[in-house]
Amino acid sequence: MRHAHSVEQVRTAEAALMARLPDGTLMQRAAAGLAATCARLLPRVYGSRVLVLAGSGDNGGDALYAGARLARRGSTVHALLLAPDRAHPGGLADLLAAGGRVTADPTEFTRADLVLDGIVGIGGRGGLRPEAAPYAAMERGGPVVAVDVPSGVDPDTGEVPGAALRADVTVCFGTYKPGLLIDPGASHTGALHLVGIGLTLPPASVTSLQDEDLAALLPVPGTESDKYRRGVVGIAAGSARYPGAAVLSVAGALRGGAGAVRYVGTAAEEVVRRFPETLVTEGGPAGAGRVQAWVVGPGSGDGAEQALREALAAEVPVLVDADGLTELARLGPDALRERTAPTLLTPHTGEAARLLAGATGDAPPPAEELAAARLVTARRLAAAYRATVLLKGSTTVIADPSGEVRVNPTGTSWLATAGSGDVLSGLAGSLLAAGLPPLDAASAAAYLHGLAGRHAAEPGHPIAALDIATALPTAWRHRR
Ligand SMILES: NC(=O)C1=CN([C@@H]2O[C@H](COP(=O)(O)OP(=O)(O)OC[C@H]3O[C@@H](n4cnc5c(N)ncnc54)[C@H](OP(=O)(O)O)[C@@H]3O)[C@@H](O)[C@H]2O)[C@@H](O)CC1
Ligand SMILES: [K+]
């Protein structure tokens, strides 16, 4: 599991540790880790050109001290000071003592074999300021290594409100920051390296599953298992107009580990033709047999209202997707108030905008605004509806009403294909039926779905939604 901590949590842990250590110890630990990573990135440290972009704070201090270490190993190190009269005094003195020089020449950015971005770290707010903004678009001669955070990325949220540096590698200190894991910030970090500096941190509210976490979450049938113990997932999806959504949701559900898939809706014929193992019931969720979790909404069209009401009345976990979400947005959070079992909502940003409008009574915010603020949006929705929310898109973010968040690391842009969300809904519903709590079910489903998309698209070609469902067993088996 990757754990990400907020700036406030990092500052608290830093203060506690600094009180016990001699001045400057943490910065030296950070600089040592940073310099070691830079040395590995350079073909040869001796004789390489290194540029340090140093801002006014400790982030610049880290970069200057790391520059000094590289200068002592024979690199030609220049420092470009973005606030020359406020550069970190100790770091600058150390760099000069090691033979480094100050430059005012911005073209050094292009000449350098490696650039250290020490403009701003966890103390930064807003995009790059005018003196630093041109570096965001400038041609580079070698890798850019971000110190702690790529400058211009909000460390707490991943928002990128203005210009920001795109790093090839980010060396972060003590812990990951949420903004390094969530787009658009995540797409600025490049490869992530964590350097331990000895902080004692509280439990993280933002985490990201890794392969071994997925392995621990996925249900494995025991010798006592029968289909009911493994879970029956009910799929209320599809309509005369959109029968395909039902087929795709069932396809995802069948490969999600539940013991059986029960389908209700008007696309039964198409579903059974494709997947004869599906149990089919006439009518809506209310009249269906035993079901341990419902998925309601993909392609439901006009049938969404009735199906949603019936599913929400059941005392089992319910996943609401697509047309079900549009209907829920119309009803507002009150529709979930009486529920005793968990509810999982799986909106894309357009549906999230409607859900927010349904909760506030305001006009729906532009979907692009929500896409740029994914963490905040998922948390707002989870709080408003008191439900677990899986916000789809570039970095899928899953928030539960307690404020806990999982960030999915396996996304791929190949997943942005029609019907991909239908497969995800069935898969997540299946994991809910198998008994996983909603945060686990949603994050495991997003992880597997992303992996399946990668497998299906290998070695790099377009895929259709059914390809994702077909690749799920491979993703399940290999988990990477
Ligand atoms: N925490 C830890 O455990 C450890 C932390 N360490 C390091 O310290 C870093 C945090 O250092 P920090 O607190 O000095 O803040 P930092 O990010 O350098 O910013 C400082 C100043 O920048 C300015 N500024 C703001 N926004 C800006 C913008 N957009 N563009 C340009 N400038 C902007 C603003 O000043 P202003 O100009 O507004 O007066 C602000 O006060 C951390 O990321 C890590 O690298 C390690 O050494 C070891 C252990
Ligand atoms: K930085």
What does this molecule look like?
This protein has helices at about 5-20, 25-40, 60-70, 90-95, 110, 180, 210-215, 225-230, 245-255, 270-275, 305-315, 320-330, 350-360, 365-370, 375-385, 420-435, 440-455, 465-480; strands spanning about 1-5, 50-55, 75-80, 100-105, 115-120, 145, 170-175, 190-195, 205-210, 230-235, 260-265, 280, 295, 320, 345, 390, 395-400, 405. It is about 40% helix and about 15% strand. Helix 16 packs across helix 17. It is elongated and about 80 Å long. Strands 1-9-18-17-16-15-14-13-10-11-12 form an 11-stranded mixed sheet, with helices on both faces. The chain has a 7-stranded parallel sheet with strand order 4-3-2-5-6-7-8. The two termini are about 15 Å apart. It has 2 domains: about 1-205, Rossmann fold (3-Layer(aba) Sandwich), CATH 3.40.50.10260; about 210-480, Ribokinase (UDP-N-acetylmuramoyl-L-alanine:D-glutamate ligase). The chain is an alpha/beta fold and about 475 residues long. Potassium ion binds near residues 119, 148 and 151. Potassium ion binds near residues 118, 146, 147, 149 and 151. It catalyses: (6R)-NADHX = (6S)-NADHX; (6R)-NADPHX = (6S)-NADPHX; (6S)-NADHX + ADP = AMP + phosphate + NADH + H(+); (6S)-NADPHX + ADP = AMP + phosphate + NADPH + H(+). It holds the Pfam family YjeF_N. In the C-terminal section; belongs to the NnrD/CARKD family. Belongs to the NnrE/AIBP family.
